[in-house]
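Appendix B.2, paired examples.
Example (i):
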Amino acid sequence: MNLNSTFIVQFVVFFILAGFTMKFIWPPMMKALDERAQKIAEGLAAAERSKADLKAAEKRVQAELAGARDEGQKHIADAEKRAQLIVDEAKHTASEEAARIVANAKADAEQQVTKARDELRDQVASLAVKGAEQILKREINASVHADLLSHLKAEL
């Protein structure tokens, strides 16, 4: 066998094999590689979108939390204001009630003082009549001296 003919045969076989590979094997393999690269690119893009969505969701969550905190503080402030209004109203009502009770007590005391004065006048008048009866040693007619007693009562 000749070295040159072997080279030529190997050269021809190489080109036939290369042509067959380029015609039948290479296109499906490139297609599979391209599909795989596209899937990887889509996966990376989806991951990037997910990261962006996650960041946006975190921002929304933070905004919602801040809004909820503000709303909670607002509710607490409103409740404190309402509580203060209730306390002020209760104080005002208690003050009015105390003033009414004091006024009633003063009126009752005034009535009792007036009643006590009237009773005291009656007793003094009765004692004066008894004293005069004792002094005169005679009986005094109450109907005759009614004007005298009423005058005495008015003076006392």
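Example (ii):
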Amino acid sequence: MSKPLIVYYSYSGTTRSLAEDIAIITDGDIRELIPEKPYSFTYNGATKEARSEIERGYCPKLLSGNEPIDDYDYIFIGTPNWFKSFAPPILSFLRSVDLKGKTVIPFCTHGGGGFGQIEINIAQECPDAKLLPGLAVTGDFEEQQVQDWLLCLSCLKQL
């Protein structure tokens, strides 16, 4: 089995922290999606920008993160829950790579909204990939939650 790839977008660092835990536990490679134009540093500004982009289905240009994924069979995709969906840089990634035949494993951080529509939206963007059960955690998650989830995937012989 090849190493997994952990791809993520993080606005405040919470999703980055979760991605790093997953990478350490799985010995996976990690890749941060960095949009060409960063979101506003103010919460209100960032939410206004994000809502507009999500509603328009906008794919921001990425400075990094959308390099080829040919060498990976398992792709973890992480995002904050923004308005019940993934952050727009995730959409840019999903539309720039070929996930056919790959196994996709979503994860998200949230302030109380769980996955929202993230798993559904990811499944719609990569219909030819296998989607495994994801993990949705709040900002105060503990590493044990991540370990238990990955162990469950492993026990199911899905990872």
